[in-house]
From TrEMBL:
Protein name: Probable membrane transporter protein
Alphabetical list of Pfam families matching this protein: TauE
Keyword Transit peptide in record: no
Entry keyword set: Cell membrane, Membrane, Transmembrane, Transmembrane helix
Topology in the lipid bilayer: Multi-pass membrane protein
InterPro entries referenced in this protein's UniProt entry, alphabetically: TM_pro_TauE-like
TM regions (residue ranges): 42-63, 70-89, 95-114, 126-148, 186-207, 219-240
Species classification: Bacteria, Bacillati, Actinomycetota, Actinomycetes, Mycobacteriales
Subcellular locations according to the entry: Cell membrane; Membrane
Entry's Gene Ontology cellular component terms: plasma membrane
Amino acid sequence: MVALAVLFLIALAAGALGGMVGTGSSLVLLPALVMMYGPRIAVPVMGIAAVMANVARVAAWWRQIRWRPVLAYALPGTPAVVLGANTLLSIPQAVVDGLLGVFFLAMIPMRRVALARRWRIRLRHLAVAGVVVGFLTGLVLSTGPLSVPVFTGYGLSGGAFLGSEAVSALLLYIGKIGTFSQLGALSFAVVTRGLVIGAALMIGPFVTRPLVRRTDQRHYALLIDCVLVVAAAGMFIATATH
């Protein structure tokens, strides 16, 4: 009970971060979850919590959701999640984590170059990204930061970005949770922990909504860059510990 209470408090902070920039909750929570329960339990617990967190973000920004990019991204991405969750990696997990870390760092200058040259991601690009990110979502612990440059590159920011990214992530995680259920990974203890942590994560989007509305777009972009740096660091640490 003490461990779960500590995780609840950590999840409150993680939910506030996720509510502000659309991702980052899992980056805060996963190290603690893995340390307390091990990766086999941490992954499905985080999956359940992520579903609940994204439900809250959808509710907070429902009126600003852009459905065309959501469907272009999530429709091909959801079956890719199922495929990824059922696929045995032919390369070591450390290699995947390391490549993701490099990609997260590379996205920082790429986002700025794309903005300066007015590159725009189109719906067809979103579909391709959905397949790639969906497959990776089924394979690894956290791919949340991968969707950030995709949706911001399409031109979304603020509530439109947060709501649209949340719906897409929700659809992907539902596919992942369904696969965990079929594989028998959702025990009573896993579900209980996921619900408790998810409840804390759901508070974040409503607490930070006034801040998002007042945040300048340049400051918002800087926050996203900070999340990408932290995500890359997390992947490199995971690579070193495998």
